[in-house]
């Protein structure tokens, strides 16, 4: 149990290290299609509304509809706000969300997908088992 | 007669992908089959089955069309209930603990990196430089270290090649 706790903490610390490294990044959230977080790391700068499942789940609807526009499957949606930007990537059945400052480098945020892909594969396997149960 | 036409219709819909210009609903065969239904009551079971097939084909077409239509206002948003949210979050965290034993995940987290990213490089570069005394101290120390390194001498005492266990 202690080991498990440490692991969970370790995973969060890893995400926090990425947050510290990328200038302007406030939160990394791995959630399911309905916005229920699987793992989440956030600083105090992130607006609370951006962490709500209702907000995160809008991506599922958005990506489904955007996939019908005839440009093949939609992979990511970047939303720019006055002070914030939200980058969401489709890793079905997971959603990878980054909440950052509007001044942050969007290309760097999109590039984090590659860095997190191995980790996401493992998390995806865990979630898939949950769904099948 | 009508059955022949309708079977052709079924073939089109069941075989999957007809040509993109193929009409989904052929007007004549359908009307023919409808006439047949009213005319002959003897073939009721087959006509019911046929009707059911048509219905399922139509509903399939309707569903497919509905799936392809972009209508954001008509989309029902599935809000997760509070208890369901908690249940799922707990389930996910327990699942995460189950994958913690696989060494691959931990190895990925501890992957060593020779170069480390420095966030906000402009701030680091525009920071105050170190004081002159500190700089002098560093120079003196490095000079002493270099001098000490130069004085290191290897003294030769034994043969470089030694035979082991050879009588």
TrEMBL record, chain A:
| A Pfam family hit | MAPKK1_Int
Q: What top-level branch of life does the organism fall under? A: Eukaryota
Q: Which family does it belong to?
A: Belongs to the LAMTOR3 family.
The name this protein carries in UniProt is: Ragulator complex protein LAMTOR3-A-like isoform X1
From TrEMBL, chain B:
- Disordered: region residues: 1-49
Q: Which SMART domains match?
A: LAMTOR (SM01262)
Q: Which UniProt keywords apply?
A: Endosome, Lipoprotein, Lysosome, Membrane, Myristate, Palmitate
Task: State whether keyword Lipoprotein applies.
Answer: yes
Q: What is its main location?
A: membrane
- Membrane topology annotation: Lipid-anchor
Report the sequence similarity comment from the record: Belongs to the LAMTOR1 family.
Protein name per UniProt = Ragulator complex protein LAMTOR1
Provenance organism? Priapulus caudatus
User: What gene name is listed for this protein?
Assistant: LOC106809097
């Amino acid at each position: 149990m202690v080991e498990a706790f440490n692991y969970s903490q370790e995973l969060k610390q890893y995400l926090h290290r990425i947050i510290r490294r990328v200038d302007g990044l406030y939160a990394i959230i791995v959630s399911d299609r309905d916005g229920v977080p699987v793992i989440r790391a956030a600083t105090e700068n992130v607006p609370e509304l951006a962490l709500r499942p209702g907000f995160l789940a809008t991506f599922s609807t958005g990506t489904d509809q955007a996939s019908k526009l005839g440009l093949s499957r939609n992979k990511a949606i970047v939303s720019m706000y006055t002070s914030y930007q939200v980058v969401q990537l489709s890793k079905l059945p997971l959603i990878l969300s980054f909440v950052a400052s509007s001044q942050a480098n969007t290309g760097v945020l999109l590039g984090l997908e590659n860095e997190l892909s191995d980790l996401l594969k493992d998390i995806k396997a865990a979630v898939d088992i949950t769904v099948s149960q | 007669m009508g059955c022949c036409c309708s079977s052709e219709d079924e073939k089109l819909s069941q075989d999957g992908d007809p040509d993109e210009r193929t009409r989904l609903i052929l007007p004549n065969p359908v009307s023919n089959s409808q006439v047949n239904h009213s005319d002959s009551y003897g073939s009721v079971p087959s006509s019911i089955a046929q009707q059911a097939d048509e219905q399922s084909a139509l509903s399939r077409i309707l569903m497919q069309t509905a799936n392809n239509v972009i209508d954001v206002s008509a989309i029902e948003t599935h809000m997760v209930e509070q208890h369901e949210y908690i249940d799922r979050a707990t389930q996910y965290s327990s699942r995460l603990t189950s994958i913690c034993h696989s060494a691959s995940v931990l190895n990925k987290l501890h992957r060593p990196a020779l170069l480390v990213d420095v966030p906000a490089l402009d701030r680091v570069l525009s920071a105050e430089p170190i004081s002159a005394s500190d700089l002098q101290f560093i120079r003196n120390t490095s000079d002493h270290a270099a001098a000490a390194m130069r004085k290191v001498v290897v003294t030769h005492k034994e043969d470089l090649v030694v035979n082991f266990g050879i009588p």
